[in-house]
UniProtKB/TrEMBL annotation:
Family: Belongs to the LysR transcriptional regulatory family.
Gene3D superfamilies noted in UniProt: Periplasmic binding protein-like II (3.40.190.10), Winged helix-like DNA-binding domain superfamily/Winged helix DNA-binding domain (1.10.10.10)
Organism for this UniProt entry: Achromobacter agilis
GO cellular component: protein-DNA complex
Keywords assigned by UniProt, alphabetized: DNA-binding, Transcription, Transcription regulation
PROSITE patterns: HTH_LYSR
Name of the encoding gene: hcaR_3
Domain HTH lysR-type: 3-60
A Pfam cross-reference name: HTH_1
InterPro entries: LysR_HTH_N (IPR000847), LysR_subst-bd (IPR005119), WH-like_DNA-bd_sf (IPR036388), WH_DNA-bd_sf (IPR036390)
Name of the protein described by the UniProt record: Hca operon transcriptional activator HcaR
């Protein structure tokens, strides 16, 4: 006959209280029903576990041997219950979060410290990749959510929320004529070479940059393509051309590059960082991260 946790809890309570009556009161059970339950436990074990005496109810030697294991079983069952509950509530476990490199400039430093302080028992596994790579990882269930550059194509399997908006700005070599004043119109750079995002690896940023140039009346002359924003800035510093980069790139300080605001209206708010998840995800920790980031959206 199997032993269940309810019987172990009743046995431990009686032994600790030294009384069936007091134990029955604490357990909110009728004393006769408690006695029957303990009899079934003793039958399952095969030996008497409790004995009534002048000083109340005390464990037999067999009962004393059972007590330590019973307490451990009750402890671990409660731990398991709490762990399952906290995972279901998104307060414990592992959250696999992918991100594009530019999310490290402002978004992650702004949002993650508060999120980790609120959920200290939730372990974050952070993985950097391109937007296309992150979407592929999400589809393969290698990550639970991704911070990607928009705009994103419509996808019936995914949900996304904009958690940061940003302007496009112009990165030029230090000392370049366009670096000497304030905001400039992009059309003034029409004769320049450009370092642009790879259309295969970073199609969103590539498309936005191309569209802004077309709106300014020219098609950019591309001297080099790259994937990471930091790489574009380094190539600008190396004299390979100008680059259109997110405004947060100003955090990537270098004496060899000047970041110039654009006067073009379409450059303002042209970019977004979005949190992307599986549609109707049941991962509570992802939903907690979403709510935390949306509350601090910039």
């Amino acid at each position: 006959m199997a032993i269940d946790l309810r019987q172990l809890r009743q046995f431990v309570t009686i032994a600790e209280q030294g009384s069936y009556r007091r134990a029955a009161d604490l357990l909110h059970i009728a004393q006769p029903a408690l006695s029957v339950s303990i009899q079934k436990l003793e039958h399952a074990v095969g030996v008497p576990l409790l004995v009534r005496g002048a000083k109340g109810v005390t464990p037999t030697p067999a009962g004393q041997a059972l007590m330590a294991d019973a307490r451990r079983a009750l402890f671990h069952s409660e731990q398991a219950r709490q762990a399952a509950r906290r995972v279901a509530l998104g307060e414990w476990g592992l959250l696999r979060l992918g991100f594009v490199g530019s999310a490290t400039y402002m978004l992650l430093p702004r949002c993650l410290p508060a999120f980790r302080a609120e959920y200290p028992d939730l372990q974050l596994d952070l993985r950097e990749d391109s937007t296309i790579g992150l979407v592929a990882m999400l589809r393969a269930n290698d990550i639970d959510a991704g911070l990607v550059r928009g705009p994103l194509a419509e996808d019936a399997a995914l949900d996304s929320w904009v958690v940061e908006r940003d302007d496009l700005i112009l990165a030029v070599p230090a000392g370049h004529p366009l670096a000497s004043g304030g905001p400039v119109r992009l059309e003034r750079a029409r004769a320049e070479n450009f370092v642009l995002y790879s259309p295969l690896k970073v199609p969103g940023l590539h498309g936005v940059a191309q569209a802004l140039c077309r709106k300014a009346g020219f098609s950019p002359r591309i001297s080099q393509e790259a994937i990471q924003v930091q790489t574009l800035v380094s190539l600008v510093a190396s004299g390979m051309g100008l680059a259109l980069v997110p405004g947060v790139t100003r955090a990537y300080s270098t004496p060899h590059v000047t970041f110039v605001p654009l006067a073009d209206a379409d450059a303002h708010g042209a970019l977004s960082l979005s949190l992307v998840t599986h549609r109707d995800t049941s991962c509570a920790s992802v939903l907690r991260l979403r709510d935390s980031m949306l509350s601090r959206a910039g």
